[in-house]
Amino acid sequence: MTPVELSHTVLHAVRRAVDEGELSVAVPERVVVTPPGPGGCGDYATNVALQLARAAQQPPRRVAEILRVRLLDDRRITDVVVTGAGFLNLSLEGAASVALVDEILRRGRRYGHAEGFSGDIVRLRCRAEVRAVVVADTLARLLRGQGASVRIECEGTPDPEWQSVLGVDVTTRGGARLRVDSSVTVRPVPAPADPLPLGRDAARWALLYPAAHDRPRITGDHLVQRETNPLFRVRYAHARTRALLRNADDLGFRPGPGPVSGAEALVAVLGGHPRILAAAATGHTPDRLARHLVTVADATLPLLSDVLPLGEEKPSAAHRARLALAEAAGTVLAGGLSLLGIEASDHL
Fold it and tell me: CB count, 10 Å around CB of 256?
């Protein structure tokens, strides 16, 4: 069960409670599920009971108990615990990650992207300043990934090296007038120095990783290959997953999605990837995607030491399942880096 499917399951439990007369509320359009917070447990949590309590004129914990009974009817949910003021904490069966890994490997780098044209036509406006142009270029990638048609208009003439070195794709103002549904002005805090000496990948990361209102650091720290560099951790985690696939092939076994114990944090962040992509696009916040990739990398790296068999050990279903999960994590990292305009190298 993916987070999206789980969200629909919780929403169905609300509808059932309303239809059966135990809750008298308007059924919400959507329910958000996230990894449990402090004091929580299980694989996912939702605060839907707290949201419905006022309208239902019942205590949040009572609303949570009403929903808990119905959620336990789904055999894919192994346990539901009510914590705090009325948070629902849901544990999924061991095979819950299988569908998620299958979906990621099927969609590849387009996992989390919309399928088809959304009908939205967006115009991004920016001035001819290097950070504004890179942010606008990245927002266009994110919005197109969510099915929108996007045009970037730059006020002024961009430096030709921004295209040749940084890979941006913008037009100057003018040209044919197109119908647009929304127009967005991209105006981040300008770069304090020329990022071109960092090269494409480090320069784009330096400009995109901080929030738009924060001043970016244009320093050589983005080039160092050590754990203190977030970009290195993301690219290293991706390269390690690719190396494991090559090593496994040499050993004669391939990935096979299956239950993986002790990887709940990684499964949760992979499952949340489509939500992050949508939020980064609609909120015009590419920094949110960059930070998410660091979270994915940090959740991936602890898994990798247990993927391959040791010594005379023969590859088992558990090894194949861990390899499939590692491949899924690498796929998400590669897709996210691509949206940021950064290369996901198979070798570091």
Answer: 16
